[in-house]
Design a protein that fits this description.
Helix content is 39%, strand content 14%. By secondary structure, it is α/β, with parallel strands linked by helices.
């Protein structure tokens, strides 16, 4: 949605490290005009998600439900028409963009369209921040990370002492869509995985550090 031009705030991505999750989320809810709620069996059974919905309703925020996976729509949201991603993702996504009044970018637009964002925008970001990428910015350096493997509540984690970020040592068992990844992270937080409840998806530049560090290590071992 960001690549389509939407100015959105996502709790899993936009809560800074070291900040109190509930406090930052409340501030974001107070400052927003509209709330997009992704509906799935996991989210509708989440007290945190339903608390956010109640807050938005009580404060007269405009709510846009998105049916991501078939589930029982909460009573408080049944009078609001949802975008149906479960039946037809592309159609549902297009309808949501129209409802949010986010237009389709033209080829002459200065902003990146959905189709071009994934490569050109990434390439631009890598060069601007001087991050290394074998294909897009081979001369890049980026920052020097210092990684340490630790155990926390029986789970293996990696601490990057340069950025103060903590990573899970092993990712998901299989590839997933962005919405699947958001639900995956939400489940980790509800389970208090490794003694933490503030897990989030990495930002692009953060993920690039891990990705390229691994590539360099594999090349060095050949």
């Amino acid at each position: 949605m960001r690549s389509a031009g939407a100015d959105i705030w996502i709790d899993q991505l936009d809560v800074p490290p070291g900040k109190h999750w509930d406090r930052v989320t409340e501030e974001a809810l107070e400052g927003c005009e509209r709330l997009l709620v992704v509906l799935s069996p996991s989210s509708v059974n989440s007290d945190n998600v339903m608390d956010e919905v109640s807050f938005a309703l009580e404060n007269k925020k405009q709510i846009f439900p998105v049916l991501y996976r078939n589930c029982k729509v909460p009573f408080r949201l049944r009078r609001i028409q949802y975008s149906d991603f479960a039946t037809d993702y592309e159609k549902g996504f297009t309808q949501l963009l129209r409802a949010l009044e986010i237009g389709v970018q033209t080829e002459t637009s200065e902003q990146h369209s959905v189709n071009s964002f994934s490569y050109e925008a990434v390439k631009k970001m890598l060069r601007e921040r001087n991050f290394y990428d074998q294909a897009k910015n081979e001369k890049g350096v980026g920052w020097s990370s210092r990684f340490e493997k630790i155990d926390s509540n029986g789970e293996k984690l990696i601490v990057d002492h340069s950025t103060k970020l903590i990573w899970r040592h092993a990712g998901s068992a299989e590839e997933m869509t962005f919405l699947d990844a958001e639900e995956y992270i939400r489940n980790l937080n509800e389970q208090n995985f490794a003694g933490n409840s503030d897990w989030r998806l990495p930002k692009l530049d953060e993920a690039n550090v891990i990705d390229e560090t691994g590539k360099k290590a594999r090349r060095a071992s050949h």
